[in-house]
């Protein structure tokens, strides 16, 4: 009898241990593909996510303590920087690119507009060390975190080690970012069968599948590959995307294909934020494509859309707005953690 | 009497060696066949220049002992950061080994798979100053210093060699034949030999994965020597 109780206790213990571990925090949508991120190397726990969330919202990461990740990746903007063509950094500096929105990162294989970052863990190093963004050095941030009143105990809770390391710092940030999942837009509800498209949205969906889906592949609404979408070069920036990183001609003007989810919250559009409205984006695809050597083959046949069709297409694109994600309180500034420390 | 002590001492040393085998491999970095001192100004005759080395760090991976083309022993850590500022990093711990071997094999740098595997700790922690931030990837070899003939600002030369994607695969495999009958061995990188093959007046800055980085990495990997003690 005692033995049975003991076994029951042990089984119960393991059940509670596993309940709410990686599957509890990451609610993988059933209609999404398999994740790219290797969760076995960085298993998610609530403590790690809490730490990552605090780091994400804490301006301690920037050189002068004025800029946090959330400064340019605001939760209310789908973690992008609404109304800013190019994002801001310390000392009122302006960068060269539009801050991309952050969601569904577990499904992405490269990061930054030029795809120069090969893993979510390593992405934060780029803005952190960029002189125009956070202007810091990784080593200095580690020292600041170690010497703070708040962080050693948060690292202890997350990693059973109060010594702050670069690895743990980056893994915690990634852990929080992995929880930013947008999968509750009207489109998703239609897929689950709990809502229906209007006729206009349905027509737009049809047009989307014919004209856009090969690059902005559903259900993530991006293949997350890099491509040249025929934007003329902005000579004030001379940004050649991936080509700038690799120095390879075939990579010139390749930029990462963004998701079409949450467009309502993430304007302006394109890597340099040149288009304020979706209409301008559609006009680019129907009559603005600039043909050059690296232009994506997907534009071999021109995209033709009547103005009614454009309206229908936009109606469909608006079904990809996910207010539940954008206003999810779990993703917001962690007042309870950060204000207690001040 | 003297001879007796000497004999006893030699026997004692021999028996320790025989019992314990080898438990570390020592690396040396030399200038003029003497251990490199960071911050010291060297008059290098071949270069006709005075040169100071300020930073030298590099990665060694998968250090293996080979016998008849089979791996018989390896280093305890897969990736090892050698940093001239930390003399202890030049001693690489291996699993204790007393058997035969005829070759040492290692990778000079970090393999491609490790480069795409996310944040890692210890020698691979990105705070070691050996990871790029504007793009992903480890810096396999970092050499910074000053040379009078170098036309860059403050006469500084900067070589950050890395790259894990074709065609700029910078990591190189090194194989060194070795005669185990000797008392022991050390692996030496004569860094002055590298500079004697570079013209610092026009090659003084490599800081991204490119053809030059591959070439220089290839050159360095051919310079490792085994020195018997």
Which two protein chains have the largest interface (Cβ within 8 Å of the partner's Cβ), and how many residues from each?
Answer: A-B, 27 and 21 residues
CATH superfamily membership of the largest domain in chain A:
Cytochrome c-like domain
The number of helical runs of chain B is 4
Helix/strand-derived category of chain A reads: mainly alpha
Shape of chain B: globular
Query: Which CATH C-level class of the largest domain in chain A is it?
Result: Mainly Alpha
Low-confidence stretches of chain B: 13-19
Number of domains of chain A: 2
Radius of gyration of chain A: 22 Å
Second CATH tier, the architecture of the largest domain in chain A? Orthogonal Bundle
Keyphrases for this structure?
heterodimer, A: 342 residues, mainly alpha, Cytochrome Bc1 Complex, Chain D, domain 2, 2 domains, two-stranded antiparallel sheet, 17 helices, 2 strands, 41% helix, B: 229 residues, alpha+beta, 9-stranded mixed β-sheet, 5-stranded mixed β-sheet, 4 helices, globular
Please explain how this structure is put together.
- Chain A has 342 residues and is an all-alpha fold.
- Chain A has 2 domains: 39-181, Cytochrome Bc1 Complex, Chain D, domain 2, CATH 1.10.760.10; 186-324, Cytochrome c-like domain (Cytochrome Bc1 Complex, Chain D, domain 2, Orthogonal Bundle).
- Chain A has helices at 2-18, 22-25, 46-57, 69-72, 120-123, 125-129, 138-147, 151-159, 166-178, 186-192, 199-211, 242-246, 263-266, 278-288, 307-317, 323-326, 335-341; strands spanning 226-227, 255-256.
- In chain A, helix 3 runs antiparallel to helix 8 (151-159).
- The N and C termini of chain A lie far apart (53 Å).
- Chain B has one domain.
- Chain B has 4 helices and 14 strands.
- In chain B, the strands form 2 sheets. In chain B, strands 3, 4, 5, 6, 8, 9, 10, 11 and 13 form a 9-stranded mixed sheet that branches.
- The interface between A and B is medium-sized, with 27 and 21 residues.
């Amino acid at each position: 009898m005692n033995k049975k109780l003991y076994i029951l206790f042990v089984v119960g213990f393991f059940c509670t241990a596993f309940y709410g571990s990686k599957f509890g925090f990451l609610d993988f949508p059933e209609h999404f593909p398999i994740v790219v991120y290797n969760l076995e190397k960085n298993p998610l726990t609530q403590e790690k996510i809490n730490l990552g969330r605090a780091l994400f919202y804490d301006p301690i990461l920037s050189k002068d303590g004025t800029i946090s990740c959330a400064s340019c990746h605001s939760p209310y903007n789908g973690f992008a920087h609404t109304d800013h063509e190019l994002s801001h950094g310390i000392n009122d500096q302006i960068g060269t690119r539009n801050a991309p929105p952050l969601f569904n990162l577990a499904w992405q294989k490269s990061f930054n507009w030029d795809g120069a970052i090969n893993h979510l863990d390593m992405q934060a190093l780029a803005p952190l060390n960029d002189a125009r963004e956070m202007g810091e050095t990784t080593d200095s941030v580690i020292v600041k975190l170690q010497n703070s009143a708040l962080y050693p105990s948060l690292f202890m809770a997350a990693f059973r080690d109060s010594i702050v390391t670069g690895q743990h710092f980056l893994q915690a940030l990634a852990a929080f970012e992995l929880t930013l999942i947008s999968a509750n837009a009207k489109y998703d509800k239609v897929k689950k069968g709990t809502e229906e498209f209007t006729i206009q949205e349905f027509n737009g969906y049809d047009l989307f599948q014919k004209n856009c889906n090969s690059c902005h592949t559903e259900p993530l609404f991006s293949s997350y590959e890099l491509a040249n979408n025929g934007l003329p070069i902005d000579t004030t920036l001379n940004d050649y995307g991936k080509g700038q990183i690799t120095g390879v001609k075939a990579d010139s003007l390749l930029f990462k294909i963004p998701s079409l989810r949450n467009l309502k919250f993430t304007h302006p559009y394109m890597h340099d934020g040149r288009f304020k409205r979706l209409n301008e984006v559609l006009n680019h695809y129907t009559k603005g494509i600039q043909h050059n050597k690296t232009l994506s083959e997907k534009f071999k046949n021109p995209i033709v859309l009547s103005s009614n069709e454009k309206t229908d297409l936009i109606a469909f694109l608006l079904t990809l707005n996910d207010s539940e994600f954008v206003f999810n309180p779990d993703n917001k500034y962690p007042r309870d953690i950060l204000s207690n420390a001040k | 009497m003297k001879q007796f002590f000497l004999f006893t001492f030699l026997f004692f040393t021999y028996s320790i060696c025989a019992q314990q085998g080898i438990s570390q491999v020592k690396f040396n970095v030399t200038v003029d066949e003497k251990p490199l001192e960071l911050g010291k100004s060297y008059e290098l005759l071949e270069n006709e220049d005075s040169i100071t080395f300020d930073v030298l760090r590099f990665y060694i991976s998968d250090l293996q002992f080979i016998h008849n083309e089979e791996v018989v022993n390896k280093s305890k850590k897969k990736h090892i950061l050698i940093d001239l500022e930390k003399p202890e990093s030049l001693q690489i711990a291996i699993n204790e080994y007393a058997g035969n071997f005829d070759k040492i094999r290692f990778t000079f740098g970090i393999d491609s798979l490790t480069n795409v595997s996310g944040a890692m700790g210890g020698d691979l922690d990105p705070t070691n100053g050996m990871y790029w931030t504007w793009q992903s990837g480890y810096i396999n070899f970092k050499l910074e210093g000053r040379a009078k003939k170098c036309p860059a600002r403050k006469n500084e030369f900067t070589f950050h060699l890395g790259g894990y994607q074709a065609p700029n695969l910078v990591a190189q495999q090194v194989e060194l034949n070795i005669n185990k009958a000797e008392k022991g061995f050390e692996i030496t990188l004569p860094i002055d030999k590298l500079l004697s093959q570079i013209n610092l007046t026009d090659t003084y800055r490599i800081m991204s994965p490119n053809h030059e980085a591959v070439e220089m990495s290839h050159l360095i990997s051919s310079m490792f020597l085994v020195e018997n003690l």
